[in-house]
Amino acid sequence: MAKTLYEIFDSKAIAAYWTDVNVNMQDPMIGTKYFPTSKQTGLELGWIRGKNNLPVALQPSAFDTKAPLRDRIGVSEISTEMPFFREAMRIGEKDRQNIETLLAKGIDFAQPTILRIFDDLKNLVDGAQVQAERMRMSLLATGAISITATADNGRPIDYTYNYDADGTWADENNLILTGTAQWTLANAATSNPIDDLLEAVEYMATTKGVKIVEVLMNSATLKAMLASESIAKAMNPLGATNMILNRNQKIAFVEDQTQIKITLYDKMFKNEQGQDKKYYPDGYVTLLPGYSLGNTYMGTTPEEFDLMTGQTNASVSIVDTGIAITTIKEPHPVNVQTIVSEIVLPSFERMNDIYVMKVF
Asked: 140 Cβ partners below 8 Å, 6+ apart?
């Protein structure tokens, strides 16, 4: 028996299509490498952030005496409400009739149109992933998150999260290069990126007890860094001006000198205003340890809650731990509505284990 339109565009079919395409994605989002995805019930997110990760020695004690209680000095508790995102698309009456006409001729005739609609619906789920990734990258560059809904959609919502309320992270884990020290093409003769990186690595090791193994930047920042004449001079002090060095040779040299891996991230998205934006901004580099820094917590959306409690007549499916796909058959006007929703916010327990440099 041929499938109906409602069966073809059921939430389970959309979820399966998105999962299949996502598994084969050639340009994955790297944020989950630093903030693995976890499930969180409800809207409240709370965690403890340490002010200093150096261990404190146990106090000496005599036998047969009570152990002294240690105060939790140097930690701060962060608690906040997680943001909610939701958007929908509709297969209207005209689209529905066109598809039904094609289906009457056979599934092969309708397949191109069906795939086009699946791709449109997939974009909704991709948009949910965009919000999580832009949050993660914003934290790695600035330690804060700011997302604002456009005014013309009737939802003037502003989500602003400052993970460094007392300013200590900005003071201790950030450096802004100024003047001729900045990594710019104009400063090629005076900038010294290798020394800047080595100083940051040493600082994190000696003051925070953290071993830095990776530095994150985008290609625009890398180009500015590799333009520094100091790199060519370090590679060949006597013949630097006559050397022809390609990008990979310079990258390998910088990695060898600093003992940290350069990770490039140039993936982009469109924001709520339709503007092209980079997940990780120009002019920033983030020095990272070799472990996760927090979690990407996915809350329970109203649609998922209804699915869990069996209180929905709609079709609901969950992908990527907490993105809810809901399809609803509407009788008047006759159409199929697809809703994608998520509640998501990263935690940042290891915030003090990274170091950020604003290099231009």
From this structure: 34, 216, 280, 286, 288, 293, 354, 356
Query: How many angstroms from the chain centroid is the CA of residue 237?
Result: 40
Q: What is the pLDDT of residues 100-111, one digit of tens each?
A: 787 777 767 677
Of 270, 286, 43, 306, whose CA–CA distance to 159 is shortest? 43
Sign of the torsion formed by the C-alpha atoms of 346, 347, 349 and 355:
positive
**For residue 18, what are its two tokens?**
């998105």
- 219, two tokens: 């290609």
Length of the chain: 360
Cβ-contact 136, 31 below 8 angstroms? yes
Distance CA 51, CA 48 (A): 10
Per DSSP, 74 falls in state T
Are 314 and 328 in contact by the 8 Å Cβ rule? The answer is yes
Segments in the chain below pLDDT 70? 1-3, 26, 47-79, 107, 109, 149-157, 239-243, 332-334
Which of helix, strand or coil describes residue 250? helix
C-alpha to C-alpha distance for 277 and 63, rounded to whole angstroms: 62
Strand blocks (E) in the chain: 37-39, 44-50, 75-81, 84-91, 144-148, 158-162, 174-176, 214-217, 261-264, 268-270, 276-278, 284-288, 296-298, 315-319, 323-331, 334-346, 355-358
The tokens for 178 are: 């100024």
Token readout for 187 is 């400063």
